[in-house]
Amino acid sequence: MGKIQKKLASYIELLRPGWWPACFFIGLTPGMLAIYLNNGYLNEFVQLKTIAWAFAYWASIVGIYVFNDIVGIEEDMIVNPKRPLPSGRTTKKSALIFSLTLLTLGVVIWWFTFKNPLSSLIQLTCICLIAIYSAIYKNNILLGLGAGFIAVGIWITFAPFNLITLALFLLIFFWELTLDVPENILHFEGDIKIHPQTFAALLGRERLVKISLIFAISTVVSVIWLFFLLDMSYIYLFFATIGSLTLIYSQLSLRKSITSIHLGHSLGLVMFSIFIINMGLITYTIVQSYL
User: Fold this and answer.
1) Which fold has domain 3-290?
2) Least enclosed by CB within 10 Å: which of 28, 148, 204, 280?
3) pTM of the entire structure?
4) Which residues of 202-225 are buried (b: 16+ CB within 10 A; e: fewer)?
């Protein structure tokens, strides 16, 4: 592999493509639901501005990922030294420029596409919350709030705030906290030295595993609440049940073992659960719109 190809591969790795599917649905689903429930159809969704919406949201999220890696170099040197920054494959200066460029593109494109001051303010708030989490105070509540407000910001671009907006916020907030359990334990050695405010560092790995089911159950409660808010759609319920059971199992499985293999398996199950739940919401929206 040539020098340019290696450099390009390093930048792509900084963007964490493995996380894109979950991020994609967290950004897509609230907008689709809001458009359908506000208009009764999805015509507004099938427009050029949907592409701008998708790119602006993606640029904001991956820009934060790169920023998180910049401020987390010391931690990654302990738990993941092969990543682009700690390994020296990418410089801190070039990564910072890359991050700021992506974040600026995300905010500017979002504003010029929708010109919604409140939505843009929430987008900036999400970025700031996650940046504070990454650089100053690595407490999982901040990350959960940042992720949850993404759905709110996208929703109010297309429809007024209502109970479904709140349910989506709680769903993503608690799902993010559930996701953080295996993620925090995987990075425990680095966090305990560099960022002692994460749940795993504050509570200890064993205690966090014991209470992790609370986050998963809270997520499932939000999923069930959405079932009632969406006219008790059994199409949604089918997907929601699979996703909810997967999420519960992902946390119960950690009680048997917290080896790296089991943590990776749990992490994959948590990611799969949000994919399935979102597929239920998207299927509900499409079926209601066109059938």
Assistant:
1) Farnesyl Diphosphate Synthase (1.10.600)
2) 204
3) 0.86
4) eeebeebbeebbebbbbbbebbeb
